[in-house]
Amino acid sequence: MPFALILGFIALAIAGGVAISYIAGSAAVLAFIATGYGNYLAIMPQRIFSQIDVFTFLSMPLFILAGELMTRGGVTRALIDLAMLMVGRLKGGLGYVNIAASVFLAGISGSAVADAAATTKTLVPAMVDRGYRADFAAALTAASCVIGPIIPPSIVMIFYGALMNVSVAAMFAGGIVPGLLMALFLFGYNFWAARREDHPGGAGVELPPVWPTLVRAVPALLIPMVIVGGIVFGVVTPTEAAALAVAITVILVFVYRMMDRGTPREALRHVWTEGSRAVESAVMLTGSIFMILFAAAIFGYLVGIMQLPQVIAETVTALDLSAVGYLLIASLVMFAAGMVMDVTMALVLMVPVLIPAAIAAGAEPVHVGVVSCLNLTLGLISPPFGGILMVVSAASRVPYLRLSLAVLPFLGVQVALLVLLILVPELTLALPRMVGLIN
């Protein structure tokens, strides 16, 4: 009964538009009181700071800042033009461009919502102008943005790795193949939809000029190469890679402005203006994330006191479930949670309770982590409270209900990939093993 009241409080707060960080903190404190462990709250400050004193967490604000700079400084536009140059003349070409752009952007920002905001205003109007249905264009944009947190860098994976003490570098390597497979699955659906709905495409489609597009886009591709290559091969830590990503992005913003305007003073003024705005946005988002981390520390402490992971592990053992069987059940629970919760909130509530039992049953921690992050990220495009759906709906002016219905086929394709990844762990683990990050 007390937990039902807490869930009711969370639902009402979300419906009332309360910031998720405040909801997480309030729910964590109420959970202690509801379970009769209120006296343990006295030690909370020490527990909170000891749990978030993790070097990896420093990379999050830097990756967020890099994503903000990328969006404001023209890097996003350069990568979209490159995608258009590569696949724009295929039938349904703008659909392929949409997906390919998300793959390129995923290697920089690590945030699905940031990618959604960056691509919706650019690609959805272009697709509608060329004959695509508005709801299809918006739904494809929303679905392709899920690639962002799977291909490294990934803010969600950093959060998960620090929360569960799993190697972030190994998770980054493990996310590359699933992210590319998701793009391939979406390519397949777009191929079918283009023929069913007779989407435009062909030799008559206007493409951006080749050399100017390559000159602007190729340097932008250095950012994911530095991030992914540096982390996976152990040259830099995730935090150092994030700092390098910010530095390269600032240089690119300056160079792009020089190419457009031709004066160093104008370029420096542009970098200063857009950089200031990017820092402000990054600080606000980082503050919100760390408030949620505080709540995660509180929930983690409560889960440990109540020994919930041990109870679930004993249940799994008694039922004689395999690691894959239990992971399928746990994924169903997490998917349901992701439909009504923010990703970070669902991570705080679900992962410490459900995941230790899967690892105890024999699942590889990196595989479980990547699958869990993908699972919870799908909640961003799952009705009724999908965060990406809300962003895309607002930016594209497609009604939320109409967009929620249009995204269901794409969501079905992505859920099929999730099940495949659970059943075939080597799709996730082969690359981390190949580079020596796991045994």
TrEMBL record:
Key words of the record: Cell inner membrane, Cell membrane, Membrane, Transmembrane, Transmembrane helix, Transport
Localisation: Cell inner membrane
Domain of life, source organism: Bacteria
Keyword Glycoprotein applies: no
Range of residues in the leader sequence: none
Pfam families linked: DctM (PF06808)
Membrane topology: Multi-pass membrane protein
Residue intervals of the TRAP C4-dicarboxylate transport system permease DctM subunit domain: 8-427
Transmembrane domains' residue ranges: 47-66, 103-124, 136-162, 168-192, 213-235, 241-259, 279-303, 323-341, 346-363, 369-391, 403-424
Family: Belongs to the TRAP transporter large permease family.
General function of this protein: Part of the tripartite ATP-independent periplasmic (TRAP) transport system.
Assembly and oligomerization: The complex comprises the extracytoplasmic solute receptor protein and the two transmembrane proteins.
Protein name: TRAP transporter large permease protein
Naturally occurring in which organism (per UniProt): Pseudosulfitobacter koreensis
